[in-house]
């Protein structure tokens, strides 16, 4: 990758880290629903999707990155046994409202809605997080594609 | 000789070597010994200047000093000398050291009297490049960077006066990240109050990150204008999120139940994911975790005497990947098929079953 000169660090772990986390989360899903597994597709899909996001957030750096931190907090809020997060850090972002308001940036509004935790970031920080988020998302998509290809009947 | 005597008297009056009047007097008196007189003007400080050299330029400095000393008598200081002397000397120690060695006056002369002294051409030709380098590429040497930062305020005014054409930004966006303070050089014709400076710094930060995002998103290089690039980025993020949702739907369809057996998945993924990405250590780390987990689940099952839930068969696809996939489908039907099919079960599992 030609990003050697970049002081803005957006490094992302290798593919196997993502794969590992995803598989672990999926197996947690299995043990979590012991017996009464509803065969409704929507529930299952939702669970898998949530598992995908949570595992991606974990693989990408846990609580070190702002978007992953807020993702994990969102997941833990719904009292999901899947996500265990230390309750010590109740806040995702420290109160810095004085930073955000005077600096107006109407164009980045949509981006804030897309990226988790984007509502409380400055614009430059938001763009850093977006770059990292995009990298992790593409890695997760690759992993899931491999899984589906491997598991689907040939 | 008179010159030196005069300067000897003057040097006492003149404080720092950067004082213009001293130099002007030098100029006025200046006849033969232009360079040497300059060097002698503030003798202690000239010596200090000569000793204060960059490690990278030390070798060149010594050669240059010799050259200057040898040539000093040949040249005569030109009229515009004082203009230069007044402004360049007070500004920068690095510049001063170079001036002491090569003497910007020699540069001036060079421009006026071409090929005056052959020996000087080589040394002085590097002077404009050096001074330019100092100004335009601040990250070149540590000392010059430090000096620049120290004299940033002075430089602003001086540079506006002298070098209007070569005014470039001394601070690049990369420097912004490293230094605790933001040092911005005001561009020619732009406001220099702190608000606009901060604004400009912030805008540069945002532009740098926008460039980074542009590289990341395919097809964003050709688009001009930040609004369109932002749109493209947002589209890309949305498409990635939609892809995740689609793939999770497909995954759910592939496995009718949420009974992902870690090991079947691993076994089946052996081929597809093993394109150099899955490290052996990662798998080894994962397996012991799974082993303990499934043993516990077996214990639970035995205690509670529940009928065998479909997902409690972890080691189905241990050695037979193709079979493992089919085995998932048939699991709920009965134990017997599995018992027959599983050629080599884990010893613990076998014990429990029996």
Automatic annotation (TrEMBL), chain A:
**Subcellular location field:** Nucleus
Bias kind Basic residues: ranges = 78-99
Question: What superkingdom does the record give?
Answer: Eukaryota
Alphabetized, the UniProt keywords read: Nucleus, Transcription, Transcription regulation
Region (Disordered) residue spans: 78-104
Residues in a coiled coil are none
Can you supply a Gene Ontology BP term from the record? Answer: regulation of DNA-templated transcription
Residues annotated as domain IBH1-like N-terminal? 18-78
Q: Does the keyword Ribosomal protein apply?
A: no
Which cellular component terms (GO) are annotated to the entry?
nucleus
Q: What is this protein called?
A: IBH1-like N-terminal domain-containing protein
Origin organism is: Brassica oleracea var. oleracea
The organism's taxonomic lineage, starting at the top: Eukaryota, Viridiplantae, Streptophyta, Embryophyta, Tracheophyta
From TrEMBL, chain B:
Example GO molecular function term?
A: protein dimerization activity
Domain (BHLH): residue spans on this chain: 190-240
Q: Which UniProt keywords apply?
A: Nucleus, Transcription, Transcription regulation
Regions of compositional bias (Polar residues) in chain numbering: 106-131
Do you know which SMART domains this protein is assigned to? Answer: HLH
Query: Which parts of this chain are annotated as the region Disordered?
Result: 106-195, 309-354
Report the main location listed first in the record: nucleus
Alphabetical GO CC annotations of the entry are: nucleus
| Any Pfam family | HLH
* Localization terms from the record: Nucleus
Q: Where is the composition biased (Basic and acidic residues)?
A: 132-162, 171-180
By what name is this protein known?
BHLH domain-containing protein
Gene source species: Brassica oleracea var. oleracea
Q: What is the lineage of its organism?
A: Eukaryota, Viridiplantae, Streptophyta, Embryophyta, Tracheophyta
